[in-house]
Write a structure and sequence with these properties.
There is one protein chain. By secondary structure, the chain is of the alpha/beta class. It has a five-stranded mixed β-sheet with strand order 4-3-5-9-8. Strands 1-2 form a two-stranded antiparallel sheet. The chain is globular, with a radius of gyration of 24 Å. The protein contains 20 helices and nine strands.
């Protein structure tokens, strides 16, 4: 209700401030273009598959009755709210199945603080599906029945397929579930293996295979360009993502140490769920302790594997919506620890205090956007101002190129915005970067202006290079032909510039 109220109170041009992510607009604008009959395109010029499919399909269907961008934001917030209600319901059902006590609300605190739910990216739907998987595994005794029932296998198989479509790297969860089930079927006849694993894995194999084939036919690449863009450049030396994961997040001035918290909480939960201890110390039903323990280990390990993949295969920094497995591992672990604390102390006061504090932090964090924020306070407020300026001063149909923070800027202007990081563009742009012809590629698409939000410590000379992130090839754009048309400061971060690109300034 807090989120919906904030969005309703804000004037239309400031509605982006109700969300916590610039990448939301890569989804919103692409899905809105699709629902308007333009196809999957962010800029209206080139088709793209730079999105996780399930959330994109949900948004595209939900936007069919709307055409206004502000209305699309309202629809998005309603969807996020429904998903949040679903997540809370699933947490309640999981606690009921486990026979858990009042301390399980500590899991809700972890979800409130860590999930970045209201950013509008795919992590909300991925988190709900992961919680649904936990409930299905526990209720259906997928890891304890010998063998599991056909209905639970079929239901889990469909859920795993949806999970992969929600976020492709969650294939690691599918593999983990298969390994856990395999432990119970080891040494059994081949017929038992077929009856177990065909319904469990066939839905994922079919849907994922079909997704890859259709992507290759329609976009010229089987996997999303957003992933390919992060793989440009040398691989295997991106160890900083491990530190990013361990230290990620903050609430105001306070660091959250997300990854370190996930690992520590998961280890504590595994110890508390040990045989003979779960019922006595935590108050959980003994028959559910082992599968819950296995799920915590699986989700924590999946998160570590994801981080390892990004360390080896990409040269980009991590973002919070990559961490759905870690979030759910933390939610389950917090519930276990909360029950142990309440049972040991004999008091609910600590858990109540945590819930109240978390809710208060959410309300205060969202309440701050209702004030008259200056345009220099954040990249989002500056993007909104720059977008309005572009509509008022640039010629109709002028094409603008921008890298980081292009989402809010593109939402705030009616001009086409070509995203120069390659996250929601064409695979042809990535190929042009590798071939050293990206300048010509941009010129052929009519790019006549460049917007750039500088980063801390970055200085701007005559040559601006895109993309900023990663260690892959870049395109250089000459901006010295004329002074900036627009210049606006962002306190503590940098400056947003808009330049006019003269003919011949699209260098490579």
């Amino acid at each position: 209700m807090v989120q919906l109220t904030v969005l309703a109170v804000l004037p239309p041009q400031r509605r982006p401030l109700a969300f916590a992510s610039d990448d939301l607009y890569y989804y919103l604008l692409t899905a809105l273009n699709w629902s308007d009959g333009l196809g999957p395109t962010f800029d209206g010029i080139t088709p793209t598959n730079g999105y996780q499919p399930l959330w994109f399909w949900i948004l595209s269907a939900a936007y069919l009755p709307v055409s206004d961008r502000g209305d699309a934001l309202v629809v998005t917030m309603v969807l996020l709210t429904l998903l949040w209600v679903g997540a809370v319901y699933l947490l309640y059902r999981i606690a009921s199945v486990l026979g858990a006590g009042y301390g399980s609300t500590a899991g809700l605190v972890a979800l409130l603080v860590h999930s970045r739910w209201w950013g509008g990216c795919e992590n909300a739907v991925a988190t709900v599906l992961l919680l649904g998987l936990v409930l299905l595994v526990l209720r259906g005794r997928l890891l304890t029945a010998r063998p599991p029932g056909r209905r639970i296998l079929a239901g889990t198989g469909v859920l795993l397929a949806c999970l992969v479509l929600a976020r492709l790297d969650l294939l690691v969860v599918v593999a983990g579930v298969a390994l856990l089930v395999a432990r119970g079927t080891w040494g059994r006849p081949v017929s038992v293996w077929l009856r177990t694993f065909v319904p469990l894995l066939a839905p994922t194999a079919v849907t994922f295979g079909l997704y890859l084939v259709l992507n290759h036919l329609w976009f010229g690449t089987a996997v999303p360009v957003s992933g390919l863009a992060k793989q440009l450049g040398p691989r295997g030396a991106n160890g900083r993502v491990v530190v990013d994961f361990l230290l990620y997040g903050q609430v105001g001035p306070l660091p959250m140490f997300f990854g370190a918290t996930v690992l520590l909480a998961s280890a504590c939960a595994v110890l508390l769920l040990a045989p003979g201890r779960a019922e006595r110390v935590v108050g959980l039903r003994a028959e559910y302790a082992r599968p819950l323990r296995a799920l915590v280990v699986l989700l924590c390990a999946a998160s570590v594997v994801q981080v390892g993949y990004y360390a080896v295969a990409t040269s980009w920094e991590l973002q919070s919506w990559y961490f759905s497995c870690g979030v759910v591992a933390l939610v389950l672990s917090a519930g276990v620890i909360g029950n142990a604390v309440v049972r040991g102390a004999g008091s609910r006061a600590l858990v109540v205090a945590l819930v109240v504090a978390a809710l208060g932090a959410v309300v205060l964090n969202q309440g701050r956007v209702l004030g008259e924020l200056p345009t220099s306070v954040s990249p989002a407020t500056r993007d909104i101002d720059a977008g309005a300026w572009a509509d008022a001063h640039l010629p109709p149909g002028a094409v603008i190129a921008m890298g980081d923070w292009a989402g809010t800027f593109a939402y705030s202007t009616r001009h086409p915005v070509v995203q120069t990081e390659g996250l929601v563009g064409s695979v042809d742009y990535l190929r042009a970067l590798q071939a050293g012809t990206a300048g010509e590629w941009l010129a052929d698409r009519g790019v006549g202006y460049l917007a750039r939000l500088t980063h801390p410590g970055e200085t701007v000379g005559c040559r601006v290079e895109e993309p900023y992130f990663g260690t892959g090839p870049r395109v250089g754009l000459d901006v010295c032909a004329a002074p900036p048309l627009y210049r606006g400061e962002v306190t503590g971060l940098g400056t947003l510039y808009i330049w006019s690109l003269a003919p011949g300034s699209h260098q490579s």
